[in-house]
Amino acid sequence: MSDSNTNSLFNLTCFVQGDPIVNNFLVQVSLTTMIRELAHKIVQAYNHSCFGRKLVSDNTLISLYQVDATYREVSKLGTPSEEHAMFGADQVQDYWPDPEKIPRRHVQVLVIVQVISPAQHHPADVSQLTSDLDGLTLRQDSVAQGFWAAPSASDAAHHSTFQKQQEKSEIPIYNGRPYERTDIPIQLFHQAFDFFTTELMNNDEPDADKYSAVEEFMFSSQATEPVCWSVTNGLLVGALGHPVTGDAISKCESDGVVAFTERNSSQKAYAAVVTVENETGTGDSDPWVQGAQLYARYWSQIAMTGLRKATPCPCFIISIAGPWMCISGAVYLDRVVVQPLTDYVWLGKHPQQDHHLMRVTRLFLALERAISFLHGYYSPLIKPGVKLSIERRRDSPYIRSVMTSTGKVDLTYTGRVGDSGAIRPVFEAMTEDGRPVVVKFAQFYNFKAHQLLAAQSLAPQLLSVEAEQVGGGLVMVVMELSGKSLDNYLGSTGLGLELSARAQVCEDVKAALDLLHANDLVFGDLRPPNVLVVEKDGSLHGQLIDFEWCGIEGKARYPAGMNESQSIGWAPDAKKRQPLRKQHDDYMFNKLFL
C-alpha cells in the first residue's frame, strides 16, 4: 500500500454506550493512526460535541470495541465480547484495512466508559491511566520533541524554511502566518499580556533617568554603522530595567534573554527573548519570526518540562530591526502561539521628538513592569525543592469564575466548542455544582437581546448577570449548555429532522426574530450554526445563540471582518460595515433549511 493511501484521512463514527441515539460523532483518522491515539481523539471529539457531559481522564477507564451497527442498533448493544476489543498498540488499519468499505450511517467504534474508584486499582494504574488520557501533555511533549529535531532558530526563520514549517510540519507556530495559523487572544491565557497593554495607557510620569536611558538606546538604534552588541545590550538593559543575558542552547542563540532563577535552584523561567537585526531587509530572516522560533526552542528544552506542564509559559518577545521594534507575547499550549502586542515602533529621531520620546519611554516602562509581573508569577515556581504539579487546564482561560445572580460561581473548563481549528474563544465548562455551561469570549455581545429571548426560552439561559469585561478587550458571557446547532441536522451527512420537529424549530426561530424586531433589534447572523436545536418536554425546539452582531436597526453595522463568501448567501445589501436591517433577518430565515 502506498504512503499516500496510508496517510489519507477518513472518518470513523463513534458512539458512547448509554448516550441518546443521536449522540454519535465523527473522528478523523488515517490507516496508521495508533488505537491509543484514537482514544485521545475520541475524548477530544466527544468533549467538543455539546452533548452536555464530558469524558474525563481522572479515575476513568475508556474501552474501545470494533462494531458494525446502525445508529438504532448500537444504542441497544450490550458490552461486546473480548474478540471485538481494540488494543492501544494496534493501528486503525488492523481493524479497517479498506476505508472505502466502511458503511455510511453505521457506527464503527463503541466507547464504554467506566468510572473506577481508588480502591479498584493500584496507584501505578491510576498514574498510567491519567498519563494515557492526558492528551494535552502528550501533544505538548510531541511539539517539544519536534522543535528538538528542527533546524536552528536562525535557519528556521528564513522565509522558505518557515513557509515549509507552517504548511507541512508537525510544529507550526500560530503567529498568523498564514491566516489559518492564528489562535484566540493570548490575553485569555495569562494576565501579564493584558497588564502590559493596560500599563501602556497608564498616565503616571516616568522618572528622568528612565527618559535618559530610553533616549540613549533610541539614538544607538539609528547608527548607520552596526553598533557592537555589547554596547547595544547595555543600553537596552538601561531602557528595559532588567538584565539581558546570553543563553546559548543547542540550535538556539538569541541576542539575549530576561530569565529568572533562584539561588540553589536548577530551574529557570524565561520572561523575555530578544532578537536584533541591524536593519530591516539586511538579513535572510525576519527578526519577528526568529523571535518566535527562539521562544519555541527555549521553552521546548527538557529542563523546561516541569514548567511547561504547570503553566502556559507566558513570555514577551522583543524584536528589533535597526530603528524599529515590536513587542509580542507568547504562550506554549499544545502548540506555540505568538501574537504582536504592538505595531513596529520607530525608535529613531522624530520631528515631534518630545511626544515620540514620551511614547517610547512609556512602552519600555510598561514592558519593565510587565516583566516584573512575570517575575512575581514565576518566582514561587522556581524555588529550590518546589515540586510542580501538572495544571491540566493550562490551555484554558485563566478567568475561572462568573458572577451570577446568587454570587460567584467557579468554573472548570472541559474543552473548546467546535472544530479545534476554528479561531473561536468559546469553551465548555462545568460549574461547581455540576452544570454544563458554555463560556463565550467576544469583542461585543448584545447581552440585553440575549436576556430578552432567554426569558421566553428562545435562547439559552444565562448564568452571567452582565457581559463581563475581561482581558484582551473582550467580554465574557456564560450560559447553559444544551442541544446541538442546526447545521448538525442538515445536509446529506446530518442527523436529519422529522417534519414536525423542523416545523417547530422554524416556528421558534420566527418567534425569536419577531420579538427582536418588535424591540427594533436585528439579529444579523442568522445561519444554521447560530440556531440551537434543544429538547424540551419530549420534543425538539429552536433557540438563537451568538448575539455578537445583534443591534439596533439602522445603527448597528456588520463587522468589518464578516465573511462575505458567496457560499453563505447573505442578503444582497448585507456587507462589511453596512447597517443591519430587519429584512436581512427575514431573507436569511427563508433560506435557513435550504
Task: Report on this structure.
The chain has 594 residues and is α+β, with helices and mostly antiparallel strands. It has four domains: 3-133, Phosphatidylinositol 3-kinase Catalytic Subunit, Chain A, domain 1 (Ubiquitin-like (UB roll), Roll); 140-381, no CATH class; 396-481, Phosphorylase Kinase, domain 1 (2-Layer Sandwich); 483-594, Orthogonal Bundle (Transferase(Phosphotransferase), domain 1). The protein has helices spanning 3-7, 35-47, 71-74, 123-133, 135-149, 153-156, 159-168, 191-200, 208-221, 229-240, 287-299, 305-310, 353-378, 447-454, 499-518, 582-590; strands at 10-16, 25-29, 60-70, 106-115, 173-174, 257-261, 268-277, 315-321, 324-332, 336-340, 345-346, 401-404, 407-416, 426-431, 436-442, 468-469, 475-480, 484-485, 521-522, 531-536, 539-544, 551-552. Strands 5, 6, 7, 8, 9, 10 and 11 form a seven-stranded mixed sheet that branches. A six-stranded antiparallel sheet has the order 12-13-14-15-17-16, with no helix packed on it. A four-stranded mixed sheet has the order 2-1-4-3. Strand 14 (426-431) and strand 15 (436-442) form a beta hairpin. Helix 9 (208-221) packs antiparallel against helix 10 (229-240) and helix 15 (499-518) runs antiparallel to helix 16. The longest helix has 26 residues, at 353-378. Mean pLDDT is 88; it is low at 116-133.
